[in-house]
Amino acid sequence: MPKQELKSLFQHLRDHLPEGETSAQQKMLMDQIAYHLHDEDSPDPVDPTLRDSVEMLIEDIEVDHPKSASIARNILETLAAIGV
């Protein structure tokens, strides 16, 4: 269930973060997060971790995209709730 909630929150983040207004760094971080949330049977990349990628994205978008940063914070809260 938590993995599905993370995927749902990530999709919500994608829907609210304007693609035409994202930097190359933001796109890269979104891709890293998507990779971490892919198939559960595949190994996760070691660096950066999912938590690190989300934290970096929040830092990068919080000024220009506060609503999207709020959604990303929800992802962090969900990660903390499941012990990640």
Fold topology:
Blueprint: H1 2-16, H2 24-36, H3 50-61, H4 66-81
Pfam family, one: DUF4404
Protein name: DUF4404 family protein
InterPro entries: DUF4404
Verbal overview:
Helix 2 (24-36) packs antiparallel against helix 3 and helix 3 packs antiparallel against helix 4 (66-81). It is built from four helices and no strands. The protein has 84 residues and is mainly alpha-helical. The chain has helices at 2-16, 24-36, 50-61, 66-81.
Uncertain residue ranges: none
| Secondary structure tally: strands | 0
Question: Which percent bin holds the helix content?
Answer: 55-70%
Task: Report the order of strands and helices.
Answer: HHHH
What characterizes the major β-sheet?
none
Structural class, please?
Answer: mainly alpha
- Gross morphology is globular
Span between termini: 14 Å
Q: What percentage of the residues does DSSP assign to strands (E)?
A: under 5%
Number of helices: 4
Query: Total domains, how many?
Result: 1
Global Rg: 12 Å
**What is the residue-averaged pLDDT?**
86
